[in-house]
Amino acid sequence: MNEDPGSTNGPAHRSWWDRLGHLFSGEPRNRDELIEELRAAQANGLLSNDTLTMVEGAIKVTELNVDDVMVPRAQIVMIAADATLEEILAAVVESGHSRFPVHGEDKDEILGILLAKDLLKFFGDGKHFDVQGVLRPAVLIPESMRLNVLLAEFRRSRNHMALVVDEYGGVAGLITIEDVLEQIVGEIDDEHDDEDEPSLIHEQAQDEWLVSALAPIADFNEVAGASFSDEEFDTIGGMATSELGHLPEVGEEIGIGDFLFRVTEADDRRVQQFRVVRRPAD
Fold first, then answer.
1. In degrees rounded to 5, what are phi and psi of residue 62?
2. Secondary structure element (H or E) that encloses residue 164, with its range
3. What is the pTM of this model?
């Protein structure tokens, strides 16, 4: 009897299952071969695109560390322990977040996590507000922790957020369960997310750009045709600050490769924006 080409019992189906069975028999093979087989299954109609993406994401999570996906320290919205209720509410409204690290004298002294919903009890009944009285314990994890290990810890402890500390015990970043899940299922938008992410690189004229210090080096390379390495630094600000050797001030300039970087915005803690011009060839 001829095989129905549309049947799941056809030769292509059996061939794929034969290969997959062989893959899991005998000595283990590498992950690249596993992904190749999964993609063949998707091509044969045995997996949907969404399923393949999630399986690949789940495999990828086992290869990533916390510092690969965490929110860097400079972008964390923190609240000081001596902040007033009004100041805290302003931070909650402006950021749209639901959880906030609360720090003591400096931002490396994490006292706990404030949940925005815990503020509701202080409205309408005249209760005295004390932020430290409503803090939840903070979870501190190392930068080197694997994402799959962290996800298991989040599930076990029922926490949704962890502070990432460096080898010296200082706060290096922040990571949430959503950050981990997005590596598996893709971007998860909520009602507070902007519909379109703001551009970090704006072309002003030919060979001239306004570039946020947070712009990834890889993105600038693509836009400007540059070839800066992102092995040591992820962002334009990190690269330029390292080249200068100090925290830059507004108006400072530095030439890196074929480009001139001029600081256009900065405060006493970090540089925020550069005007970048391609230098004419000698």
1. -70, -10
2. strand 161-165
3. 0.54
